[in-house]
Amino acid sequence: MLSKDFDFEKSIKELEKIAESLENEKISLDESIALFEKGVTLSKECSEYLENAKQKIVTLTEKESEANG
Amino acid sequence: MLNTITVSQLNNYVKSLIENDPRIAIVNVSGEISNFKNHFSSGHWYFTLKDANASIRCVMFRSSASRVRFQVEDGLAVVLKGRVSVYEKDGQYQFYAEEMHPVGEGDLALQFKQVKEKLEQEGLFDTSSKRVLPKFPKRIAVITSDTGAAVRDILNITSTRYPSCEIVMCPVLVQGDNAARDMIATLDRVYKLDDIDTIIIGRGGGSAEDLHCFNDEMLARKIYESPFPVISAVGHETDFTICDFVADVRASTPSHAAELAVPDWRELKKRVDVIANLFKSTTLRKYDLYSGKLQALILKVSPANLSRIVDSKQLDVDRLSDKIASQIKFALQDGVNTAANLAARIDALSPLKVMARGFSTVTKNGEYIVSSDKINSGDNITVKFIDGDISCLVTDKNTK
After folding, report:
1. A-B contacts at Cβ under 8 angstroms
2. What three-state secondary structure class fits A11?
3. What is this model's ipTM?
């Protein structure tokens, strides 16, 4: 399950950064394995975020009472 | 005899004459406005309508004036609908306008033009103040009628393209006299929320009259104040409203607004997959690189390689030991030879060998004598030969 504050934009940016770092030949095997694991987790989370979403519809009044309470 | 009547009676009579003439009881009059005054407390309008040769004083009461949507100013060519009457107090006959329409174009078109020019001059349409829509909105406020086609279209598209996004429905009136006020009040409520990423405001297609509330000056100003990026989506592609100009983004239709507001999750999924594959392949490549290096290292420490090393070392050892052995042998031989030489030399030095050659030794009282000094005439000495001794008496002595 994704955490409530999962940020898709942040995650996909991080994922792109990891892919870029992995292309860099200079990083060590240890580092690349750590990045790889992080990347796999992130890509799974991103996919889950996209695939399992159900549109939530609230009314302005509900939203206001949620914000105030 | 003429009757004498009062001024009041006269004015009252003329007034009734005019008011009872069916040809001017209700009439359209065209002309140009001048001396326009909007009375500050009553809200009634006072002005003069004139053409090239004549003018007439006009009044438009507040109840009628408030229905005029465009800005009235001197020089404006209008058609007034109303009646003619007499203001008895000063005997002025004047026109009581109930409707006012611009000449040459519709009221709405004129209002549109006037508001557009005004806001444009104030810089409300400047592209520099337009914001970019967030790529991955978490929450979108949809301000439209909750019964129209627009809301259906928007929800259809957002739910298929990007269901991760929450929709905050803000139902409002989207046509009629109260629509602009309702939308302004709703915008105020939305602005108080702090987690809205994008606002979509609009409605589906309709007549120019239907869409006209989106040309409201105050609504446009309210949209301009928005803390969140606003997409305006009013009517069809060919409909332009003031809201469209003042919003950050104009969408041609509500469906288009929804498409602009959210990305397509299938595209994003593809992108995520591409990235995931990319780093899988790069990691694999790195793994291959290292595993190649490892393989080479493993080969170096393999038993076969070790025994090869041992064999070659053994060879070195053998070669060395052979060398040492031969050297020792050589040294021994050398020693043996030296010893033999020495023995030969020792042998050569043996007194027996000397005596064998004819030399003999002399002793006196058991002592070997090597000098004639030690011997005097009359001494008894022993002379030793290799094969026996003789005792001798010294009879003479010659010292050298």
Report:
1. 104
2. helix
3. 0.81
